[in-house]
Structure formats: structure tokens, C-alpha cells
Write a structure and sequence with these properties.
Blueprint (H helix, E strand, L loop, with lengths): L1 H8 L5 H22 L6 H24 L8 H37 L7 H58 L2 H17 L1 H21 L5 E2 H19 L3 E6 L7 E2 L3 H12 L8 E8 L2 E7 L12 H14 L4 E4 L3 E7 L3
Parallel strand pairs: 2-4
Antiparallel strand pairs: 1-3, 4-5, 5-7, 6-7
Helix pairs in contact: 2-3, 3-4, 3-5, 4-5, 5-10, 6-7, 7-8, 8-9
């Protein structure tokens, strides 16, 4: 609980952070006035407080814009990207601070009725050194806070993604190596050995390819879309032999364009369609895959079974969480009572 409080204290997107910055700024002005033996409410101290608060709020806003989420990358990639943003943030804030300082000082000149002709000589000869020291110290502290918060968040996301991947991998393996799936496949293979040995050999090869693909790619963060589509076709092939003309798969993707996708994600959606819908020769189950707006769309006509198989939706929930952590985007699920559609964001 204590560590959570400390983390929230330094999060620029919380009200607590702004309150603390206000108190720190006021405290610095108070200490400075005591050291100088002057009143706290002098014009210079009030102007200094306003200047500090303007800069703090502007730097906070800029920091939130620069250090947005960096999803789905390794620790080294995240650190390198945050360092680049750190440099750009520092330079932008430095220029913004110079503009604010000049405007505030110019405002004081006008308030006193002084000519602006003496503004820049005054800034260069009397204010420049103090401004450089104060601004650089403030920027260094602020950027370190942003760096820590964003790097810490990135490391947490990476750890969470690892955990989600382990859950997904375990669930996928359980789904594919479950007795029901193996029983149906082996039962089909047994009947084909006697009736159609050549088809039985093809069936065995496809079955082996499926498990080889799962074991080789299930732990990866992404695979080429064309490889995932080949895997899906092999997987559907086994069901097609069993169900003949009851189910159809249409892949309307003429070019994969180098897209990547989370491994075994399409198979999970096709498995859900097969598991939750009736399929007959008169009313076959139609599953279609296509690309739309950098997402792959998996849709099927809804023909719900009278008695749905027991399911808690764990596979779809895990897939949605993996996509969110890996891409920063959401899995889109649409159900209009006639068609069930899922859209998976593709990786470039």
C-alpha cells in the first residue's frame, strides 16, 4: 500500500501531484524569502511563484503528451524510446520556459511603466544565470519523474504481458490437446485408414503440422499473417473432413502485405464459431476472414446450438487482454443476432 501511495504521488496525471507541486513551489519561495530576510509577499516572490507554477503546469502537460504509453515492447526498446522522448521533452520545455520567462518579465516591465527596449539587456545581464540554473534543475527533476513513472509502467506492462502470454499458451495447449479434440481426430483417422488410405495420410500430415505450429509459435509475440492463415487452413481441413459440406471457410485476403498477428489467435475464433453454432448441409456454417482498416475480420453466421457447450469465455478474454497489452488497441466484438464478428488489430 505504501509503495502504491509513493507511485501515485509522482504520477503527473493525478490531482495529488499538482497539489504537491503547488506546495513545493510555495515552500521554495518561502525559504528563499527567509534566506534573504525579506517579506514573502514581495512583488519579486509573487512573480517568481507565478512563473514557477506556469512552468510546472506546462511541463506537466508536455510530459503527458511526450511520454504516452509504449505498449508491447521489450525492456530495451522501451528504455530507448523513452530516452529519445526525454531529450525532445527537455529541449521543448527549455524553449517554452525561455518564452514564459521572457513574457512574465516583459509583463513586469510594462507594469512598472518601463520601456521594453531594456528587456533583453536586463534578461541577459541580470537574469540569465539564475534562470539557467533554476530552469535546468527544475527540468532535470521533472524529466526524471516522468522517466521513472513511464519506465516503471512499461516494465509492469511487459511483466503483465508475459503473464498473459503464459495463461494464453497454457489455455491454447489445453484447448488443442484436450481429449475431445484428439478423440474426434483419431476417430476420423481410424475410419479413413480403411476407407480412404490416401486421405488418411493427408489427414495425419495436417494434424502433425497443426501441433508443430502450436509448439513452435505459441510462445512468440507475433507471427507472419500468411503463416497464421496457412495454420488456420490446416486446422479447418480436419474439421472439413469430418463435417463435409456442413461448414465453409472463405479467406478473402489476396495479399497479406507483410502483416503480423498474435499466434494462434485466428484459430481460437474459428474454434469458437465451430463450437457454438449448429451446422447442417441445408444451413451450413459460413466463416469468413478478410482485412479491414489494418484489422483482420473474422465473421460467421449465427446458428446457436439448442444447448450451448459449457464455456466461461476465458479464451476470448485472454486474447483481448493480450491484444491490448501488445498493441495498445482493443479487440472489437460485434453481435447483431445474425452475424458474429471479431476484429483483431494487425501488427505492421
Amino acid at each position: 500500500m505504501k509503495s502504491t501511495y509513493k507511485e501515485n504521488l509522482f504520477r503527473p496525471d493525478t490531482a495529488r501531484y499538482h497539489i504537491v507541486m503547488f506546495a513545493v513551489s510555495a515552500g521554495l519561495i518561502l525559504i528563499l524569502s527567509l534566506l534573504q530576510g525579506s517579506s514573502v509577499f514581495t512583488e519579486g516572490h509573487i512573480a517568481g511563484f507565478i512563473l514557477v507554477m506556469l512552468q510546472v503546469e506546462l511541463f506537466t502537460w508536455l510530459g503527458i503528451q511526450f511520454f504516452r504509453s509504449l505498449p508491447g515492447e521489450s525492456g530495451k526498446d522501451v528504455t530507448r524510446k523513452i530516452l529519445k522522448r526525454f531529450i525532445w521533452f527537455y529541449l521543448t520545455c527549455f524553449v517554452a520556459s525561455a518564452i514564459i520567462f521572457t513574457l512574465v518579465t516583459g509583463g513586469l516591465f510594462l507594469l512598472h511603466g518601463d520601456s521594453l527596449n531594456g528587456l533583453f539587456p536586463h534578461l541577459i545581464h541580470r537574469e540569465l544565470k539564475g534562470w539557467l540554473i533554476g530552469t535546468n534543475l527544475g527540468l532535470l527533476g521533472g524529466t526524471l519523474i516522468f522517466f521513472y513513472v513511464q519506465w516503471n509502467d512499461a516494465m509492469k506492462r511487459e511483466q503483465q504481458l508475459r503473464e498473459e502470454n503464459l495463461i494464453f499458451q497454457n489455455q491454447t495447449l489445453k484447448n488443442q490437446v484436450n481429449p475431445h479434440f484428439l478423440f474426434n481426430s483419431l476417430n476420423t483417422l481410424s475410419s479413413l485408414v480403411n476407407t480412404n488410405p490416401e486421405l488418411a495420410e493427408q489427414f495425419t500430415g495436417k494434424l502433425a503440422q497443426i501441433y508443430r505450429y502450436i509448439l513452435e509459435n505459441n510462445a512468440k509475440d507475433s507471427v507472419m499473417l500468411k503463416d497464421e492463415l496457412n495454420f488456420v487452413q490446416d486446422y479447418f481441413y480436419l474439421h472439413k473432413i469430418r463435417d463435409e459440406d456442413k461448414i465453409n471457410l472463405t479467406i478473402d485476403i489476396p495479399d497479406t502485405n507483410g502483416y503480423q498477428i498474435l499466434p494462434v489467435s485466428l484459430q481460437l475464433l474459428i474454434e469458437n464459431a465451430l463450437k457454438h453454432n449448429m451446422a447442417t448441409r441445408e444451413n451450413p456454417l459460413e466463416i469468413k476472414l478478410q482485412i479491414e482498416d489494418n484489422s483482420i475480420v473474422v465473421s460467421n453466421n449465427l446458428q446457436p446450438m439448442a444447448t450451448l457447450p459449457q464455456s466461461v469465455g476465458t479464451g476470448l478474454k485472454n486474447l483481448a487482454e493480450r491484444i491490448r497489452l501488445s498493441t495498445g488497441k482493443e479487440l472489437i466484438v460485434e453481435n447483431n443476432r445474425e452475424t458474429f464478428t471479431v476484429k483483431i488489430p494487425l501488427l505492421l
